[in-house]
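Discussion board: Methods & Data

I've been asked by a reviewer to show the raw model output for two of the constructs in my manuscript, not just the figures. I'm not sure how much to include, so I'm pasting the format here to get opinions. Each protein appears as its amino acid sequence followed by a line of discrete structure tokens. Is this the kind of thing reviewers expect to see in a supplement, or should I convert it first? Here is construct A:
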Amino acid sequence: MNNVFVSIKDVNASDVKWIDARFSLADANEGKRLYNESHITGAVHWDLNEDLSDLTKKDGRQPMPSKESLGDLFRRSGLNLDDNIFVYDDGGSPFATRAWWFLQYAGFENAFIVIEGFEEMKASGLPVDNETALPKKSSVNPRWNELIYATRDFVEKTVAGETANQLIDARAPNRYRGDVEPLDRVAGHIPGALNFDWEQLKQDGKFRFDESIQEKISNLANSNQQVTVYCGSGVTASPLFAMLSHYGHENIRLYVGSYSDWVSKEDAKVEKG
């Protein structure tokens, strides 16, 4: 187990840096509003649309930001590669895992996802305020880990049988099968992909870590298997990436563009059923 997820009871709050990743897909301003109302003292806010995506690109609904913009985000957040960093959201959401994935991609090896949501963290006695954090800017230079990032070209090679990767689709089964498609141009899934609905990772609004989840994760892929996870826009696949990592899987990539990027090309091949 790699301890990607941690409980607040295991956090030494005197020597950490906090990232508030709260967001709502239904209301793009909610995360910023919640942060401005109250957040863990010293936390900086990372917005899914403004910081963890580049919406000017055409590579899916939540496209990959440039390395330049990510590097600037890390520096203005005051981060250094050896910092102990803890990311939180409302609990059981895919936004802290999305932020954590970018930290992994950039080489921040001591970054963790808090299992509990903000309200539970607040109730535990962690200090909160509504002051916008203004950390001292760092001069960090990320160490990019390309082995956890799947480009569209890599996925195309995987579909063509040119890599040893297994694609895993983290969307709901009815979207995977192509029964419905509320968001993207074409219904179905990337050819050859297996389905594992990321919602299975939760119970009562929180990520679960019981024997049932461990069994599901081990049945999905053995620890040495090379897998690439995707979803609709690259957001809800990040909890599956994080959970696989937590249980010791090391050969995992995230297709950030995901299905919305895949079907952006007119000649994209899809499967149904």
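Construct B, same format:
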Amino acid sequence: MLDECKLTITQLSGAAPAAAETPAAVKPDPVSEPQASPEVQQPVITADNSTDIEAEAKTSKAAPPAPAASSSIRVGIDKVDSLINLVGELVITQSMLSELGNNFEMEKLDRLSNGLEQLLQNTKELQESVMRIRMLPISFAFNRFPRMIRDLAAKTGKQVELKLSGEQTELDKTVMEQIGDPLVHLVRNAIDHGIEPAEERQAQGKHSEGSIHLNAFHKGGSIVIEISDDGRGLNPEKILAKAIEKGVVDPSEQLSKEDIFSLIFEAGFSTAEVVSDISGRGVGMDVVRRNIQDLGGRIEVESEIGKGSTFRVHLPLTLAILDGQLVRVGTETYIIPLISIVESLQIKSEQVNEVSGGMVLYRLREDNVPVIPIYQEFGLEADNTELADALLVVVEDGGNKIGLLVDDLLAQQQVVIKSLESNYQRVEGISGATILGDGSVSMILDIPGLIQGASRRAQNNHGRAA
């Protein structure tokens, strides 16, 4: 049948070209066949009209370099059609603006303003369309779990049922590639630590088959992935006792239930009595939290003894663009991710308290929020060095809050993130950079890093005071 074959004709080096198939009654004259010159590179012609030159077949014995690893993405034709239509609209707007630019007169000012607004609208739609192309359903990450859970259940002798929901929730391809390993570790922990053996579950009045539920949904400008189980849950008393034994926390320190649960993400921390090749080695959970934070996300834990646990992962939809609040410190402009901002306020002097070690705390309702002067953090000259004259931007990550001291609040806008580490080097307190509309470069603040730095300074001050 037609279109069901592929023809490849390859010229062998130093040999006469192979004769094409001809009827038996017609024989090509071998004398008339031209001999290939050994110095000439001969092409390999394939049926798909592509040509490959066998370079350096005789002159070099070195193997050709391996092709660079590349990745691809499958895109629906509807998304491609939408992108083509938007490009067409952009071309029309550009042509209109170009015509207005010729012999411009003040009478054309209204048409120019309308054209610029149309250009802005087309650019936004084009940006959203391109970002949709990068989005994939999270089912690509969830599809690995049915077999993995079946194998782990057989290995541990437990009965486990997997429930999936929200598989069509879309996530940026880059985020999805990097969230796979943390999800695997959380699911393995749920089977090893959370789900009880069938006999133990029946003794507690539960169904002999445990359940693990993976759920994904959009919330605001982020995606939430939940890993839930109906197992034995986390024991806060046991976790706290282990933390005190390891010296992670002070015995006299009062911790909330959420603070105790966050201890499981400390490096080397494990309450498992038996070490297995599945979990309980004291490694992994700290890496899980760090990987999630590197993606600009955070993880929360909810648990009740005897009823199960839920690990809730909050992630940005994309790593390429973020919604940011522009702030000014002296002559520099910084960007704070909007998702991290709790509130902005004018400082009241009576709410400021200075503790040992020079740490300044601001009383915000029920919380004492450490104040971080940005001008001191990055060695700048600020307009306002007195707390009473400055603005405080309260940010939060992982349940911890700090206040960033700034001179002024500017606009809110979407910014394209440029990696500082790949183009320069890693800078403490900075997660990336972007280029503003006036062409200047603005740094994006690393909120988790600033919070961790404030926590370290507080611990050091507490140690010196002790």
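Answer (T.O., handling editor elsewhere):
This is acceptable in a supplement if you add a one-line summary per construct. For B, something like: The two ends are 87 Å apart (CA to CA).
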